[in-house]
Amino acid sequence: MDVSTSAARSAAVAAAVAVLAGCGSTSTTSAPSTPSLFQQLVAGYVTYAHCARAHGMPNLPDPQVDEQGNDHYPALDRQGPWRWSESVIVGCAKVWARVHAIRDRYDSTHQQAPASPATYAKELRIARCIRAHGFPTYPDPLPTGGFAVNAVPPGFSKPNLSPQARAAIDACSQK
């Protein structure tokens, strides 16, 4: 393991402890500085991966998290479409709720650069296509990229993407 991987894991573990600790401690010793929202988000995703491994996905790797705060599992993605198992969705629901709360806070403070006109036009076409594929309330993306918090309709939630949503995304992403 190289130094950067070790440091990243150490930061993730420290942030995971902070995420799982809840509201705080009654200790009188000085605490280390609070992890950034990004570090908390990474730790939350890692905690979710640990939970998923304990609930039926033993070979799930720790996620890679990009600068926008999205988690990725390249080894799984290379194998083709995959989904969270029902046992993970149910067994890790409380962990996912904590991750989602951190993600909402991260998104509200993380300023993204505006999407290029070409990227925004492509995202608009995909949104319109998804609406035409059975999701009439699917929103247009924000000009900065992504969507307003809680704007995406049920079925598009990442840990339990519905088969219908997956089919619409696949159909519209290929156009």
Q: What would you note in describing this structure?
A:
The chain has 175 residues and is mainly α. It folds into 2 domains: 110 residues, no CATH class; 63 residues, no CATH class. It is 52% helix and 2% strand. The protein is built from 7 helices and 2 strands; from the N terminus they run H-H-E-E-H-H-H-H-H. The protein has a two-stranded antiparallel sheet. A hairpin with a 5-residue loop joins strand 1 and strand 2. The N terminus is likely disordered.
Task: Supply the key terms.
two-stranded antiparallel ribbon; disordered N terminus; 2 strands; 175 residues; 2 domains
Brief digest:
This protein has 175 residues and is mostly helical.
